[in-house]
Amino acid sequence: MAKTNPGRFFEDYAVGDVLHHAVPRTVSGGERALYHALYPARHALYSSDEFARGCGLAGAPLEDLAAFHMVFGKTVPDVSLNAVANLGYAEGRWHLPVYAGDTLRAESEVIGVKQNSNGKSGVVYVRTRGLNQRDDCVLDYVRWVMVRKGNLEAPAPETCIPELTRVIPAEDLVIPEGLDFSSYDFTLAGEPHRWGDYAVGEQIDHIDGVTVEEAEHMLATRLWQNTAKVHFDTTARPDGSRLIYGGHVISMARALSFNGLANAQIIVGLNGGAHANPCTAGMTIRAWSEVLDKVETSAPGVGAIRLRLVATSGGAPFQLKGEDGKYHPEVLLDLDYWALMPL
To answer: How many contiguous H segments (helices) and E segments (strands) does the chain have?
Structure first.
């Protein structure tokens, strides 16, 4: 009897399956330090316990995206070990801050399947929940991933594509308990721009760029315990290259967005996201943002801002799709998210 795990293939999934992912992980301050070593992340609320306490929190939480990567990594052996590519996200919400000492685990439910026309792969939709040691849900999201078939003769399952909310209603966003931006320190945060300074439709070129190297993206992928073959094994892709983990691109773009959006402190909602084109080592990631919506919240001094974050490997900013509706080849990421910002 084989002791090793070859991973699930497309024909191994069925709608309604619940996957309980292995290896819970206890968070320490090391994750914060490594996150800051990997990305030019400078948002004050995640850098300083004192700043976070001044905003009504118990201390500086783990970055929202670091918590996302940690939960995501738990799912890979069961969802995307044999993936061709991770395709997109929807309906993501952060419910609770994650602090050092919390232990995270994950579980997923298969909510959709669709075999591709070539018969060699298919798309699997899962809803994942990240749970802490008290079984509280700290975040949840939907993602869909293209997975190879192990047996090309396996019959195609009945197609089931879930209906997903395009935009999370602002009233469904979860504001961290105690959050209060009424005494927010703009000097320490690094920029004077508040929620009222941004206009719907405004576009921001974040100017800076970071060239991705093999070593750093592989370190990041190991940090999140992401075991997908395409990120490590050069024989897993036809061109012999390692595919950069999409979450690495997300975190890099988010960190670059500090220049112009330093006060978009807390990510609370992920409306949608697409890894438009593959990223490989040697590419220089740049980013731009567009303001899509703004809503006041019930928390003191706190506004919600909906942003489109686009990561590119070149080209002029603010160019997203061609006349054919397809992403330009230099567009790596198109992410739609809600963040909290001082009014």
So the answer is: 8, 11
The position carrying tokens 């397809």 is 326
In 3D, which of 273, 308, 272 has the Cα closest to residue 288? Answer: 308
Question: For residue 256, how far is the Cα from the chain centroid?
Answer: 15
- Do β-strands 266-275 and 284-296 pair in parallel, antiparallel, or remain unpaired? unpaired
Whether 67 and 130 have beta carbons less than 8 Å apart is answered as yes
Two tokens at 168? 């999370």
pTM of the model: 0.95
pLDDT in tens, 94-143: 999 999 999 999 999 999 999 999 999 999 999 999 999 999 999 999 99
Which CA distances in Å does 131 have to 67, 136, 137, 140, 215? Answer: 11, 5, 5, 9, 30
Neighbours of 199 (CB within 10 A): 8
Of 85, 63, 169, 71, the C-alpha closest to 128 is: 71
Cα dihedral angle (311, 313, 314, 316), rounded to 10 degrees?
-10
Contact 19, 108 (CB under 8 A): yes
CA distance 126 to 145: 9
Q: How far apart are the first and last CA of the chain?
A: 61
- Which of 343, 52, 299 lies closest to 175 in space, CA to CA? 299
- ∠ CA 330-257-318 to the nearest 5 degrees? 40
Calpha distance 299→286 (Å, rounded):
33
CA dihedral 63, 77, 244, 151 (to 10 degrees): -150
Rg (CA), the chain: 20
User: Could you tell me if 231 and 221 are in contact, meaning their C-beta atoms sit under 8 angstroms apart?
Assistant: yes
At 64, phi and psi to the nearest 5? -55, -40
